[in-house]
Amino acid sequence: MREVLLNSVFFGVFLCLAAFQISLMLKKRFKFAILNPLLISNLLVIGVLLVFDIPYENFNNGAKYISFFLTPLTICLAVPLYEQLNLLKNNLKAIFAGLIGGVIGGLASIYILALIFGLNHEFFVTLLPKSVTAPIGMGVSEKLGGVVTITVASIIITGIFGNMCGAFFLKLFRVKNSVAKGLALGAASHAMGVARAIEMGSIEGAMASLALAVTGLLTVVGASIFAMFL
Fold first, then answer.
1. Would you list the domain boundaries of the chain?
2. What's the pTM?
C-alpha cells in the first residue's frame, strides 16, 4: 500500500481534496468552532503522512498542482473588490488609515512579545510577517535573516486562528460595520481571513481582499523598519 502511495502522482491531490471534504462534513455535522475545515484537513493530511511514513516530497509531487491555482485564485479576489468600488472610493481615507494602523499594531505586538519573552533578532524577524500571505512573508523573513520554515508555520497558525476565532472577536468587541469586519479579517489573517470574510458577505469579502493586498505591501516596508528595533 505504501509503495502505491509513494509512486502515485495523484496521491497528493486526492489526499488534499479528501481531507478537506471530510473536514467540511464534520463541520456541518457537529458545528463546533474547533472543527474548522482548514485546521482539521491539515491534521488529517499530517496524520496520513505520519502513519504511512510518506516523505513530504512524494506527497508534494501531486499536491503542488493545487498550489499552482493559488496565484490565479488570489487575482480573482479583485472581482468582489471591483463590485464594491464605489464603497471603496467613499471610505478611502478611513480604509487606508485602518490598514496602516492594523499593520503597525501587528508589528508592534510582535516587538512587545519579543521583549517579554527575550527573543533574539533572528526569531523576532521570523515572526514579524506572520499576518501576510505566505509568498510575501517568506520573502520578508529571508531578506531580514529569519527562519523561513518557522515563518511559514506562524503564517499558517495565524491564518487558521483568525479563520476560526475572527468572527468571535468581532462580536466580542461589537464590531458591526461590514467594512471594518472585512478589513480586520484580511489584515490579521491574510487569505484564510479573506475566506471567512467572504462567508460573512460581499462587502466583508471585498474589503478583506483589499486588506490582503495592501497589508502585504505595507508589511514589507514596516517589517524592515521594525527589524532595526531589536
1. 2-68, 76-229
2. 0.80
